[in-house]
């Protein structure tokens, strides 16, 4: 990216603001109006500082056009490069003509410019120049998931779904004692982060690793670059959707899509190191324990009440399950949700966003820890995604666990299965983009849309003509609906057309402009949402009927298709601290 693409703070090239602190060995954003700054502002060259070897030179000459050399990461070139030199040179050549403002105003704008927040983890991305972009880009790892996901990074005017995967692979220094010794990296922790279309709220749904589900056929790139179709398996643990039989994160995305009915736009995968390095980078994450914990398996040893954890203690906290009442993975999920909510608050706090040193360490740790899909495998792309996520107030980020029950097929249940009542309700709300928090703007918009749907004249039941197709999961759904319409609602001109050509995720009603009164009448009878209505462009001719196709959201004749607006399940908000029990 060039200087214009990177942005400027008071017309100062950000690449000139990062200097090496010889006492700490860290690159820091220079905010004070130093003598070198004043000299350059007046067009006078300042002498080289003896303690800043490798940092951008502050006066004129060849040295001032070179950013600090950064080690190669993952085979990507990480030095400043010609474009970085040109950007710094341009800043230097025009410095004498710039009008400077008071240091306070400049400091504020520099910090605002550096205060981006990356993806679901809300990791701040500081862009101190071309060389810094190269450094962070070199940290990132990516996986080609083919034609899955969202190639445009962010879908405009649509909900956004990001799958966060935590693996149990033993990578990184000091992680030999965690996870399974021979694990190839299973989907140990899984959170589907659903961001609303209007970006006012988000729902983070934890999917238990021990959930018994079906894994569909999927295509995965192999180490030699070839593509392999891996056969699906039925009734197996969710965590085997990754790693097992050569499955990659794309296979986990496919499994989530089949399980939830929601298309996944992107994935972010982390290992044990992510928790350790990110928690340390923000200076610790605040947690609360209802009772003292001493877990020999995770080595967690903390007193009751508030605690601040980082590094090994943070990893021990998110991995412990024996510290909780039931000692189950479901209890561990609650602890993970508390930890993530607290880390989000810490990352969005002024203490973090106004600290250049923290921002650098946070972005560096995050990009090293992340493996992402190829559509978001660069800092500019991640920053684009971050801009969408930073619009959400933490009070409107809700953590829930996919509702499950004990597996009835096991005498002593170890695994779980989807709750047949509450899980469809939650997923229906997400599919309809219904918030789990009280977001006034969204509630008003939904009511307005539904009111508009039913506004206008409605045909008498005897005048409604509709053909019913079954594209849902309930056998005989079309006949069941026709019988209910005829016997209970008086829609005598309804016809059973048997199975639809293909399965449908959503129920739809197709109608012509001159059938709008019939459509409004049928929508009111069946409780159809506005999203189910599909008006055509041409008027119906003669006895042409509307077409009702039942989808997977059809739960039975007489049951409204409209998803619930509320659900009675445990929820946690990212802006509130709770104590783990």
Instruction: Identify the overall geometry.
Output: elongated
Give the structural class.
alpha/beta
Number of strands: 25
Biggest sheet, strands in spatial order?
Answer: 3-16-11-4-5-6-17-25
Largest sheet: 8 strands, mixed
Number of helices: 16
Question: Helical residue percent?
Answer: 25-40%
CA-to-CA gap between the ends? 48 Å
**Mean residue pLDDT:** 76
Strand content: 15-25%
Task: Identify low-pLDDT runs.
Answer: 1-18, 31-128
Radius of gyration: 28 Å
Structural notes for this entry:
Helices cover 30% and strands 19% of the residues. It is built from 16 helices and 25 strands. The strands form eight sheets. Strands 3-16-11-4-5-6-17-25 form an eight-stranded mixed β-sheet, with helices on both faces. β8 (218-221) and β9 (227-230) form a beta hairpin.
Short description:
The chain is α/β, with parallel strands linked by helices and 581 residues long.
Topology:
Elements: H1 3-6, E1 18-20, E2 27-29, H2 35-41, H3 81-93, H4 103-114, H5 130-139, E3 141-143, E4 160-167, E5 187-195, E6 202-206, E7 212-215, E8 218-221, E9 227-230, E10 233-237, H6 249-260, E11 266-270, H7 272-281, E12 285-289, E13 293-295, E14 300-302, E15 305-309, H8 312-319, H9 329-347, H10 350-353, H11 356-369, E16 371-373, H12 379-389, E17 397-401, E18 404-406, E19 416-418, H13 422-431, H14 440-454, E20 465-470, H15 477-489, E21 493-499, E22 508-511, H16 516-526, E23 533-535, E24 546-550, E25 572-573
Parallel strand pairs: 3-16, 4-11, 6-17, 20-21, 20-24, 22-23
Antiparallel strand pairs: 1-2, 4-5, 5-6, 7-10, 8-9, 11-16, 12-15, 13-14, 17-25, 18-19, 22-24
């Amino acid at each position: 990216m060039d200087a214009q693409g990177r942005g400027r703070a008071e017309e100062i090239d950000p690449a000139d603001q990062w200097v090496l602190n010889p006492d700490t060995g860290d690159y820091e954003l220079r905010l004070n109006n130093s003598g070198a700054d004043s000299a350059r502002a007046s067009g006078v060259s300042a002498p080289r500082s003896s303690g800043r070897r490798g940092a951008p030179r502050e006066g004129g000459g060849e040295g001032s056009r070179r950013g600090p050399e950064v080690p190669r990461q993952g085979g990507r070139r990480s030095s400043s490069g010609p474009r970085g030199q040109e950007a710094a040179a341009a800043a230097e050549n025009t410095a004498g003509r710039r009008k400077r403002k008071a240091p306070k105003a400049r400091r504020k704008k520099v910090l605002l410019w550096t205060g981006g927040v990356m993806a679901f983890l809300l990791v701040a991305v500081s862009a101190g120049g071309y060389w810094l972009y190269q450094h962070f880009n070199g940290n990132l790892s990516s996986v080609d998931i083919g034609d899955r996901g969202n190639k445009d990074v962010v879908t405009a005017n649509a909900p956004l779904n990001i799958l966060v995967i935590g693996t149990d692979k033993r990578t990184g220094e000091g992680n030999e004692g965690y996870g399974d010794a021979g694990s190839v990296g299973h989907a140990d922790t899984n959170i589907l982060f659903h961001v609303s279309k209007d970006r006012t709220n988000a729902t983070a749904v934890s999917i238990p690793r021990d959930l018994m589900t079906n894994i569909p056929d999927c295509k995965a790139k192999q180490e030699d670059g070839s593509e392999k179709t891996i056969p699906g398996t039925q009734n197996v643990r969710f965590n085997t959707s990754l790693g097992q039989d050569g499955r990659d994160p794309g296979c986990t995305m496919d499994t989530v899509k089949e399980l939830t009915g929601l298309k996944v736009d992107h994935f972010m995968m982390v290992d044990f190191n992510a928790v350790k390095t990110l928690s340390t980078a923000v200076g610790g994450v605040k947690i609360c324990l209802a009772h003292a914990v001493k877990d020999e398996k995770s080595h967690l040893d903390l007193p009751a009440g508030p605690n601040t954890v980082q590094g090994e203690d943070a990893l021990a906290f998110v991995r412990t399950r024996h510290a909780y009442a039931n000692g189950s993975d479901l209890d561990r999920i609650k602890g993970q949700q508390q930890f993530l909510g607290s880390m989000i608050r810490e990352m969005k706090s002024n203490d973090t966003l106004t600290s250049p040193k923290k921002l650098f360490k946070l972005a560096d740790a995050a990009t090293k820890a992340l493996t992402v899909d190829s559509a978001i495998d660069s800092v500019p792309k991640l920053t684009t995604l971050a801009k969408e996520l930073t619009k959400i107030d933490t009070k409107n980020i809700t953590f829930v666990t996919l509702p499950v029950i004990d597996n009835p097929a096991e005498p002593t249940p170890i695994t779980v299965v989807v709750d047949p009542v509450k899980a469809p309700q939650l997923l229906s709300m997400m599919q309809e983009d219904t918030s789990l928090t009280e977001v006034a703007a969204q509630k008003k918009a939904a009511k307005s849309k539904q009111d508009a749907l039913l506004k206008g004249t409605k045909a008498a039941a005897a005048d409604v003509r509709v053909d019913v197709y079954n594209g849902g999961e309930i056998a005989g759904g079309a006949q069941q609906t026709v019988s209910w319409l005829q016997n209970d609602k008086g829609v005598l001109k309804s016809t059973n057309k048997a199975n639809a050509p293909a399965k449908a995720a959503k129920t739809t009603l197709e109608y012509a402009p001159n059938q709008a009164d019939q459509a409004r009448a049928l929508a009111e009878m069946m409780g159809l949402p506005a999203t189910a209505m599909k008006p055509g462009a041409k008027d119906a001719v003669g006895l042409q009927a509307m077409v009702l196709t039942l989808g997977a959201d059809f739960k039975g004749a007489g049951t409204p298709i409209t998803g619930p607006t509320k659900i009675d399940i445990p929820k946690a908000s990212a802006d509130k601290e709770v104590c783990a029990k």
